């Protein structure tokens, strides 16, 4: 499915497939208006969530904040940083958690 995770070095160069089902979930995937980005933290953590397109360009910084231990959910509404609707296609949701990056491939269908 589309819930593939990978540790990333620089930008979107995917290396060493990394499956971490408890850290990050995207639902529904594919999505057509909003997608839920859920993550479960074992300790208080600084989190950033950024959406990139296939060319590695930043589309939307969804969140950059400190979160407490536990389950959290963020909604992305398929809009870019200028609040414009994005085109249909494949995007990468990059979760940066305490210096570790996890990538989920998501599919947006209108």
Overall description:
It is a single chain. This protein is an all-beta fold and 110 residues long. Helix content is 0%, strand content 55%. It has no helices and nine strands. The chain has strands at 6-8, 14-17, 24-27, 35-41, 45-52, 58-67, 70-76, 89-97, 100-108. The strands form three sheets. Strands 6-5-8-9 form a four-stranded antiparallel β-sheet, with no helix packed on it. The chain has a three-stranded antiparallel β-sheet with strand order 3-4-7, with no helix packed on it. Strands 1-2 form a two-stranded antiparallel sheet. A hairpin with a 7-residue loop joins strand 3 and strand 4. It is globular, with a radius of gyration of 13 Å. The two termini are 19 Å apart. Residues 1-21 have low confidence and may be disordered.
């Amino acid at each position: 499915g589309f819930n593939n995770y990978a540790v990333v070095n620089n930008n979107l160069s995917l290396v060493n497939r990394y499956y971490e089902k408890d850290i990050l979930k995207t639902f529904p995937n594919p999505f057509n208006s909003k997608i839920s980005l859920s993550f479960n933290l074992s300790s208080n953590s600084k989190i950033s969530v950024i959406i990139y397109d296939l060319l590695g360009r930043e589309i939307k910084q969804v969140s950059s904040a400190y979160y407490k231990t536990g389950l959290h959910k963020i909604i992305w509404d398929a809009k870019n940083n200028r609040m414009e609707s994005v085109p249909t296609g494949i995007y990468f949701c990059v979760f940066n958690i305490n210096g570790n990056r996890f990538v989920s491939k998501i599919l947006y269908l209108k």
